[in-house]
Design goal:
Layout: E1 8-13, H1 20-29, E2 33-37, H2 43-60, E3 65-69, E4 84-87, E5 92-96, E6 106-108, H3 112-117, E7 123-126, E8 131-139, E9 142-149, E10 151-154, E11 159-160, H4 173-185, E12 189-192, H5 198-208, E13 213-218, H6 221-225, H7 227-233, E14 236-240, H8 241-247, H9 253-266, E15 271-274, H10 289-300, E16 305-308, H11 310-313, H12 318-333, H13 336-344, H14 353-367, E17 370-376, H15 381-388, E18 395-399, H16 402-408, E19 414-418, H17 425-438, E20 447-453, E21 462-469, H18 472-478
Parallel strand pairs: 1-2, 1-16, 2-3, 3-12, 5-6, 12-13, 13-14, 14-15, 15-16, 17-18, 17-20, 18-19
Antiparallel strand pairs: 4-10, 5-9, 7-8, 7-11, 8-9, 20-21
Helix pairs in contact: 1-2, 1-12, 2-4, 5-7, 10-12
Length: about 475
């Protein structure tokens, strides 16, 4: 399943994409990662989707990453006696712990921890920010507010609190059950919602016990403020622009997106840009020009992956949405300006031997007639460092670890190939040459760059680089290793 682009595509599964035929069609159209949204569906439904993905993976012999997206703590108002009320701008409105049905003057907010953290002047956003309240006074069990932006408020609408770091764990009791379930099921990535602090990530990591990589969703201002610390303890990042655009001024989101993508790339950790990328394709077979430009912008920025949400989960045109992303990515990456932007955005390197090896591999590949960089990796680190370089030739990541191959399906440019255990560098070069030829990356007359660590099968030992022919006879005749 060789792709003609380097950026990866994440497709969310849902009612529109829960059959074997549809999931296979999505993968063949370009989906590299499938997202299971734990906010929707029972454990049995999630397990059924997981089993289908693994069957597609086996049938097509193509490593697929599965991302389980935990719901996170959901803050919602209670119910109204009339089902809904209209709040006028400037009116007074109270949130409290009284479970009685609400009216035009008050409603229950069954989260005492919010009242403990609020201060006068803080804002509360209801229904994705359509209603904005400013706190004028607060107590342990209530908050008096003034309506800044009015509108219709109805039963159980979501509440965002952008100005305050809430004393809430990122993992609700439901999330803990879901985490254990999907880790036992065998997902590759866990997306952690509403992260506010690095401690939220370390808690999830302890519970996961190495069974899945941890991806932090950045959708709170507090997470933006502490991003470096969160990135340090995360395996990857999702720029979740939905809630981020609710809790911050919308004009602040694009520059934040650009900064976060660059910071992730600098430390060789994959980053996904998500939310509303092709929103109109939920109902239309064609995207808007603005949506295409949004997708292209994320690719020009160097993101590892772009994501479809409702477009593939519940939309009328899931396969078309994936194909559109695939086509946009191929077009952008063929643009000479793309290569110039990517090259100009390479930051300062670290100073390990592995950093030097992958940098040299890219430079050799781009200044000579090299068809691919083949990196042998156990944990995935060498492939991630190679991807950080954003080379102008394909990356073939060879590993004997199935979990590593699947996780790398999320990372920019990584074409993952399973190999057997190797003990000699000569056989590694032979395996690389075979993978390059069988994948259509090179012919027998071409050359490749091979990186590996000696001794083999030891994490973190990348220390060797070889320019090698793809003709096995030449390898055996010239390589003494």
């Amino acid at each position: 399943m060789r792709r003609l682009r380097n950026v990866k595509i994440v497709a969310t599964l849902g009612p529109a994409s829960d059959s074997y035929e549809m999931i296979r069609a999505l993968h063949e159209a370009g989906a590299d990662v499938f997202r299971l949204n734990m906010s929707h569906g029972s454990h049995s439904e999630i397990a059924a989707k997981h089993a289908i993905i693994r069957q597609v993976e086996a049938d097509l012999n193509s490593p697929i990453a599965i991302l389980a997206d935990l719901q996170g703590p959901k803050l919602r108002v209670g119910a109204f006696a009339a089902g809904s009320e209209t709040l006028a701008e400037g009116a007074a409105f109270r949130l409290d712990l009284d479970p009685a049905p609400g009216d035009a003057t008050r409603v229950c907010l069954p989260h005492p921890e919010i009242f403990a953290a609020l201060e006068p002047g803080a804002h509360l956003l209801v229904n994705d920010g359509k209603i904005r309240l400013r706190v004028t006074g607060c107590a342990d069990d209530s908050a008096d507010c003034q309506v800044v932006a009015g509108g219709v408020i109805s039963d159980r609408k979501g509440v965002n609190v952008p100005d305050v770091v809430l004393p809430l764990a990122a993992l609700s009791p439901k999330d803990r059950k879901d985490l254990e379930f999907v880790c036992d099921l065998g997902v590759d990535w866990l997306a952690l919602s509403f992260v506010q602090r690095p401690e939220d990530v370390t808690e999830a990591r302890k519970l996961a016990r190495g069974r899945a990589a941890i991806l932090s969703k950045i959708e709170k201002p507090a997470a933006v403020d502490r991003f470096e610390a969160i990135l340090d303890v995360s395996d990857g990042i999702m720029v979740a622009r939905g809630d981020l655009g609710v809790e911050l001024p919308v004009q602040a989101v694009p520059p934040i997106q650009k900064r976060l993508v660059r910071k992730c790339r600098a430390v060789a950790k994959p980053v996904i840009v998500a939310t509303q990328m092709l929103e109109s394709m939920i109902e239309s077979p064609m995207p808007t020009r603005a949506e295409v430009s949004d997708v292209a912008t994320a690719i020009y920025e160097g993101t590892d992956a772009i994501m479809l949400s409702a477009e593939s989960a519940a939309g009328r045109y899931p396969v078309e949405a994936v194909r559109t992303m695939d086509n946009v990515a191929a077009e952008v990456e063929a643009d000479p300006t793309y290569a110039q932007i990517i090259a100009a955005s390479r930051g300062g390197r670290q100073h390990s031997i592995a950093d030097g090896i992958v940098a040299a591999a890219r430079e050799i590949a781009e200044t000579t007639d090299i068809k691919a960089i083949c990196c042998f990796t156990k944990s995935g680190t060498t492939a991630l460092l190679t991807a950080r370089e954003r080379p102008g030739v394909p990356i073939i990541a060879l590993t004997s670890m199935q979990d590593t191959a699947r996780r790398l399906a999320l990372s920019w440019g990584c074409n993952c190939v399973m190999t057997g255990e190797l003990s000699r560098f000569k056989m590694a070069v032979v395996s690389a040459a075979r993978a390059a030829r069988s994948g259509g990356f090179a012919t027998e007359t071409d050359q490749i760059v091979v990186t590996a660590g000696v001794p083999f099968n030891v994490t973190g030992t990348t220390n060797i680089l070889r320019v090698a022919p793809c003709d096995e006879r030449l390898i055996f005749n010239t390589d003494p290793g």
